[in-house]
Amino acid sequence: MPYKEPQRKREWERLHRSERLARRRELRQSEAAREEAQPGAGRLQIGASSLLLPLAAGGALAAYNPKLAIGAGGLTLAAAALYKKDWSWWIVGVLIFVIGLFFQWNHKAEKE
User: Which of 16-20, 40-44, 70-74 has the lowest mean pLDDT?
Assistant: First the structure.
């Protein structure tokens, strides 16, 4: 294999330079053509309003059964950590967890 020795590697790269440049040019052109055909397909816009639906659902779940809300918040946090999700998953998970804890604490205070 020519990559074991630096001199042979440089020689191989010198001999195949035109092929590598042609391949890179071809890949850039195909990528540009794909993005031109589908301009908005690769990008997903996430705004603050996209956080409202999961938070509303978590609040309703907490009002119905606080233990389920605590579990759902914990599972959301676990999924965010496991799949390396962005900050919005972490915020939703923490807020659902905290809302569930609040309703659980409030529910226990009403029983006493």
Answer: 40-44
